Amino acid sequence: MTHHEFDLIGVGNPIMDLVAYATDDFLQAHVAGDKGGMILVDHDDIAALVRKAGG
């Protein structure tokens, strides 16, 4: 077995996905942008969406 050693550094902002099931109606009512697209949001935006979804 080969042993590999890495030195790693990350710079910038990590992208973290939250996966949830939602209806098209919910997405149209509460999410800006296009279905299947990507928008950058902060913690407060995600928390508000989770509350609206009943989570």
Describe, in plain words, how this protein is organized in 3D.
This protein has 55 residues and is an all-alpha fold. It has one domain. It contains two helices and no strands. It has helices at residues 24-30, 43-52. It is elongated, with a radius of gyration of 17 Å. 0% of the residues are buried.
Describe, in short, the structure shown.
Helix content is 31%, strand content 0%. It has helices at 24-30, 43-52.
The stretches of 5 or more residues where confidence is low (pLDDT under 50) are none
Distance N terminus to C terminus? 45 Å
The proportion of strand residues reads under 5%
Strand elements, count: 0
What gyration radius follows from the Cα positions, in whole Å? 17 Å
What is the 3D shape? Answer: elongated
Number of helices: 2
Largest sheet, strands/sense/barrel: none
Helical percentage: 25-40%
How many domains make up the 3D coordinates? 1
Mean pLDDT: 85
Q: Which structural class matches the secondary elements? A: mainly alpha
The succession of helices and strands, N to C, reads HH
What are the key terms here?
31% helix, mainly alpha, single chain
Show the helix and strand layout.
Layout: H1 24-30, H2 43-52
